[in-house]
Amino acid sequence: MTNTIGQKIKALREKAGLNQMHVAQFLEMDQSTISKCEKGERQFQVDHLERLGNLFGVSLSDLMNEDVPVAHLQIAFRANGIQVEDLNAIADIQKIALNLDKMHAILRENLHEA
Asked: Could you tell me which residue, 69 or 6, shows the higher pLDDT?
């Protein structure tokens, strides 16, 4: 499963147009650690997976479930460089969007039960 998670993270990262250094700076880790995690040689810590899920707009359970393909986040930057602050802002917005989706799902379930 570790390799699958690393492969998902790599695919999401590449589709978002980010390199390993962007992710490393976002997670405050070394770039070589990101490389090892993507290759399945090391494991991402759960808090790192949560932050990456927020950044890419996917739930932690979707990242960890081998059977769930993850859709990529389309990011359009109009600046020459991506700063860690930009990635933090994107992650915060994505987290809000994920929480809103969860709330809508709960409301739909409650309406169907009523």
From this structure: 6
